[in-house]
Structure formats: C-alpha cells, structure tokens
C-alpha cells in the first residue's frame, strides 16, 4: 500500500469479510486518528477488549503483514491531505458548514476511489462496452439511477443500453445474453440478490460481466469478470451510499469517455446527431 490514500479505503472495503468481533477491532483501530509510533499492540488490544493475537490476526486479514505495518499505514494516512477532508456533521453546524462538510466528504471519496481504482479493469471494461452487441445494465434503488444516467450518456454517442430495475426483467434479459454481450451490475453493497442472480445467469451464458460496487470482496465482485470499486467513509447522517454514488458516477463518466475514444469520430458524429434531435425541445 504505497499510496497513503488507499489505507483507510482498503480497511473499509474488507470490513464485510470480518467477523463481528474482528470488525469491532478494525473499527476501533481506524478511529484512532491520533495514532503514532508510541501506540503499542497491547494498547490497541486493551482498548478493543481482545487479545494481542486477535489484533495481529485482524491486521493480516486486512492485508497488512502485521500490526506494525497496519499502524504505520494509518499514521501515513492520517497525515495525508485526503484524511483531513472528512468531518462529522453536528447538530450545531451552520448552513455554510454543512455545505463545506458535504462537499469535502465527496471530495475525499473521489480522492480515495481514484487511488484504489484498477486501471487495467477500467481499460478492459471500456473495450467490452465498445465491442458489445448488447449492453444490459442491472440495478435497484439508487443504483438504478446511476445505471440510467450512464445509459443516457452512451445513447448520446450511439451506443444503445437497456436498463433493468425489476428482478423478473433482469432474469429475462440475462437469459438472452451471449458471448457478444455485456452485463453491468450496479450494487453498493455487492450483496443485492436481485442483481446477483441475473449476473450469475449472464456469465453462465457467456456474456462479459462488470460489477460497480463499494466492496471488492462482495458476492457480486467475486462473480463478475471485472470489478470497478468506489469507496466512501460512512457518516451517521449522510450514510455511505450517498457519497459512494458520487464516486461511482465519476467512474462511469470516465468510462463513458474512454469508451467513446475507442471510435471518437463515430462518437462525435452521433453526439451531433442526437443533440440536433433534441434541439427543438429547448426554448430559444
């Protein structure tokens, strides 16, 4: 983990893979924003109410060689500009403070998502979408809104996308996909059964599959051919999903541009045509 911005993100992404007790230990350590070299393994164990061995086990499950590497990673992270962007919203905050905190929290999510994004997977995803005969997007709730936003952008450059947010329709769509097609699943948790089942069916039928999620070890991520991960810090009031959606929208905006560049001439020509088609809908 050479980039300090990735440390907290990697911890948050792996929290769902831990047991409740392990997650409690990880969250306790992550909350130590004043952590320094004087904080010992024993201090953390006592503070978490567990054994020294449990702290070391958690550090290793989170991808570190041991407690010392975990401690150093957090020290580097909390010294970074990215860590300083986040602040809890309090009942006493003014309108200006609320705006600043909401914006800065979104900026943090963007910084950390950029740091962890798998560029190879991103490139392959653009290739899949450019070459596909059929592109079907699956999502429910807020994730469906992201899917619709992306589908709108692709239509502007002449790449047709079908968006499904109904469990039955998703299964019917997946049943008809084949090796020349792509299924993209949007799921913040990566555990939504409504999209997991069509994802499995689409892949079984030979379609390329892409997951857009906040957790790279979620059931959705384990099934998909490619995973594009966002990350966001949880907030008692904002929640995690709202901020993560900002990061996911930016990932997909970049993916739209990368896909368009596969045939920029055609993309620009189609964009001109679609813009002319709606021009009459705007008042002069």
UniProtKB/TrEMBL annotation:
It comes from the Bacteria. Residues 125-265 form the SIS domain. Keywords: DNA-binding, Transcription, Transcription regulation. The keyword Transcription regulation applies. One of its GO terms (molecular function) is carbohydrate derivative binding. InterPro entries: Homeodomain-like_sf, HTH_RpiR, RpiR-like, RpiR-like_SIS, SIS_dom, SIS_dom_sf, WH-like_DNA-bd_sf. Residues 5-81 form the HTH rpiR-type domain. GO terms for biological process: carbohydrate derivative metabolic process. NCBIfam families: PRK11337.1. PANTHER family: GLUCOKINASE, HTH-TYPE TRANSCRIPTIONAL REGULATOR HEXR-RELATED. This is MurR/RpiR family transcriptional regulator. The lineage of its organism: Bacteria, Pseudomonadati, Pseudomonadota, Alphaproteobacteria, Rhodobacterales.
């Amino acid at each position: 983990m050479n980039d300090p911005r990735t440390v907290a993100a990697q911890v948050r992404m792996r929290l769902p893979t831990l047991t409740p007790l392990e997650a409690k230990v990880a969250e306790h350590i992550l909350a130590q924003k004043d952590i320094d070299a004087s904080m010992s393994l024993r201090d953390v164990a006592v503070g978490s109410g567990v054994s020294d061995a449990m702290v070391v086990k958690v550090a290793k499950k989170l991808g570190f060689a041991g407690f010392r590497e975990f401690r150093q990673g957090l020290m580097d992270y909390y010294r970074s500009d990215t860590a300083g962007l986040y602040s809890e919203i309090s009942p006493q905050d003014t309108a200006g403070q609320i705006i600043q905190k909401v914006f800065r929290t979104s900026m943090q999510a963007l910084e950390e998502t950029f740091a962890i994004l798998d560029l190879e997977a991103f490139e392959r995803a653009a290739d899949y979408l450019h070459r596909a005969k059929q592109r079907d997007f699956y999502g429910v709730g807020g994730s469906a809104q992201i899917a619709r936003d992306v589908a709108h952008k692709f239509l502007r450059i002449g790449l047709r996308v079908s968006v499904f947010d109904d469990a039955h329709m998703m299964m019917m769509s997946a049943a008809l996909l084949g090796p020349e097609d792509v299924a993209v699943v949007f799921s913040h948790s990566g555990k939504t059964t409504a999209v997991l089942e069509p994802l499995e069916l689409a892949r079984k039928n030979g379609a390329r599959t892409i997951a857009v999620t906040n957790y790279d070890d979620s059931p959705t991520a384990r099934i998909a051919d490619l995973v594009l991960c966002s990350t966001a810090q949880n907030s008692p009031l904002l929640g995690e999903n709202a901020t993560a959606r900002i990061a996911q929208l930016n990932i997909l905006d970049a993916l739209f541009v990368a896909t368009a560049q596969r045939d920029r001439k055609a993309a620009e020509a189609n964009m001109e045509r679609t813009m002319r088609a709606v021009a009459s809908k705007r008042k002069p």
